[in-house]
Amino acid sequence: MLSQVLLVSAPGKVILHGEHAVVHGKVALAVALNLRTFLRLQPHSNGKVGLNLPNVGVKRAWDVARLEQLDTSFLEQEDIAAPTPETLEKLKEVADFPADCTSHERPAVLAFLFLYLSICRKQRWTAEDLELINKWAFQGEKVIHGNPSGVDNAVSTWGGALRYQQGEISSLKRPPALKILLTNTKVPRSTKALVLSVKNRLLKFPEIVGPLLTSIDAISLECERVLGEMAAAAPAPEHYLVLEELIDMNQHHLNALGAGHSSLDQLCQVTMAHGLHSKLTGAGGGGCGITLLRPDLEKPEVEATKQALIGCGFDCWETSIGAPGISIHSAASLDTTVQRGLDGL
Ligand code: MEV
Q: Where in the cell is it found (predicted)?
């Protein structure tokens, strides 16, 4: 039972290399960003549990008494388990969606209800237990996009920079403090649909798509090697040149897999006009891209690139990689922008 306000944050993350390939057993490199999502858990005396996700446009509340009376025997008791299609159908009844509820609100609400009801049922919530958090986050991912590799929840939980392959996770030792632009094209896409379409392309053209995935694997390994070299000695301009080449090659491969989008092409062209190299990150088909910022870049050059991207209608943030994973905060330690954002909810 929550007796006080709990402030939790999780890092934003990007996949440096290996998206899609990781679903097929290849290596991915993922890093946590110094852009965080804050969550305020707050006790209410109105007998309701509320979910407020302003960015997704979700604001819902359910009577705790009603939820407590539900027969939740359809939820797995013994272990952390993925929701079955029957479970999802039952959760839809609990959610009681209004007719105008959009298709991106629905999975967010279902993921919340699934995790909330499962965790209450088990009564074994321990905030410190990162393993447990990671496992639950993975199940939440399954509600949202079906067949996740596990890389996204792992990097959000542990932070830093991770090498991920088939559930095997290792942290990159002292990754260099790379600066990047994270750009949101604002083009909506479904990770589930994109992962499925890459799989279908692999099944249709195994001799063509298989080598592409092997090549992406090699790009991730080469990137890991270069980041290791940069950590061992002072990063040199040549390191950044290699990182830029890897970004370009991977972006072309991802296009060949069918994960591209004209908005991402535009993002790459705009940054290339400023001498910077970009690739999509995550599922593609819209969504976000990353642009590597070399340390020699002057502030006005970075600013001009950001303005050019914003001019395309994109959102753009300058940030750095390797942030801490999920964290608990005291209210006093939050900076005023975050405080104000949470107070405005
Ligand atoms: C999505 O952020 C990354 C993908 O590789 C899917 C996954 O790993 O679950 C496209």
A: Cytoplasm
